[in-house]
Amino acid sequence: MAKQQLTWKEAINSVLANSPNALHYDEITKEILDRELRTTLGATPAATVNAQISESIKHDGDNSPYLRVGKGLFTLRNRSSISSIITAPEKITENLKPNKSSTPTSVEPDIEDPQYAVISSFGMFWKREAIEWVRSPKILGVQQLGASSVDFSSQLGIYLLYDGREIVYVGRSTDRPLGTRLYEHTKDRLAVRWDRFSWFGLRPVDSKGVLGQLPEQFAAELIIPALEAVLIEALEPRQNRKRGDDLSSVEYMQQLDPAVELKRKQALFDELRPK
After folding, report:
1. Are 156 and 174 a contacting pair, CB within 8 Å?
2. For the residues 237-257, what does the mean pLDDT come to?
3. Which residues partner with 206 through β-bridges?
4. CA nearest to 42, candidates 177, 50, 114, 19
5. What is the DSSP string of 63-92?
6. How many CB atoms lie within 10 A of CB 270?
7. What does DSSP assign to residue 96?
8. Are the beta carbons of 148 and 43 closer than 8 angstroms?
9. CA-CA distance, 44 to 183, in Å (whole number)?
């Protein structure tokens, strides 16, 4: 019988206890996935790991088992005190029940990452051909392999259209969401001029993959680093030695629209079917 998964905190503790160095929450998440400490990941596993640790530090203070030692970098405060509550994967019992309080109802951003309060998600160089272009298309993405998919068709923000690697158009989705705006570009003067697109979204994404409401306003101290991060990520200037302030932490990988995959299989079946 299949073994039961650890809670998020048990999985985080196990990873940190086995690392001699502090780890970024992205690295912690990757290790959890690689070691299969959890199979139910939700739509935002990295954000969930970050929230679990950050909430503990925020609410428990010196009693939290975690220490933030850098931007997004965490380690255990006292390894000896935490070792007793870590469950190794091979020792997981079938009677272990997930802790209902282990996953926050809303994923809070790390206060050390100001762009999280503006740019909630983005995708780079997504393929036009991976989407079925109807009036309400599915713009599907996953934060990490194994995570639940998110439909970004109702996302608001800015987007870029490419012909190969060349940017041919920059637009915004405000009164009409991303899916609608991109669909319109399959019918207007740009219809034959783009094959890929990138997008940067403002609506927050919760752990279930649901897009939240757009905040009424953003503080200047949050907008400035977010704008810098977006420009660096989108334009890739040669003199910038790093990507925009960890903006890669909220990047989503494109997922093929099931309708497109179905059409491909049907076309292959039709081609192989005896005449």
Report:
1. yes
2. 76
3. none
4. 50
5. GSSEEEEETTEEEES-HHHHGGG---GGG-
6. 8
7. -
8. yes
9. 26
Helix, strand, coil shares, percent, the chain, to 5: 35, 20, 45
Q: Say what the pLDDT of residue 112 is.
A: 45
Query: What is the rounded CA–CA span in Å between residue 16 and residue 82?
Result: 10
CA atoms within 13 A on the CB side of 111: 6
* Ranges of each domain in the chain: 8-91, 114-263
Do 187 and 200 meet the contact criterion of CB atoms below 8 Å apart?
no
111 versus 249: the higher-pLDDT residue is 249
Give the confidence band of 220 by pLDDT, cuts at 50, 70, 90: confident
pTM for this entry: 0.74
SS3 13: helix
Name the residue among 138, 126, 113, 146 with its Cα closest to residue 45: 146
For residue 145, the model assigns a pLDDT of: 81
Return mean pLDDT, the chain: 82
Structure confidence by residue, pLDDT tens digits, 123-170:
999 999 999 999 999 999 998 888 899 999 999 999 999 999 899 999
Which residue is associated with the tokens 């998440």? 29
Q: What are phi and psi of 130, to 5 degrees?
A: -85, 5
170 is written with which tokens?
A: 């920059």
Q: What is the DSSP letter of 52?
A: H
Using only C-alpha atoms, the chain has a radius of gyration, in whole angstroms, of: 21
Percent of the chain scoring above 70 in pLDDT: 81
Rounded CA-CA distance 39/113 in Å is 27
Reported as half-sphere exposure (CB side, CA atoms, 13 A), residue 37 has a value of: 24
Q: Please give the CATH topology (third level) of the domain spanning 8-91.
A: Arc Repressor Mutant, subunit A (1.10.10)
pLDDT at 54: 92
* Pairing outcome for strands 121-127 and 140-142: unpaired
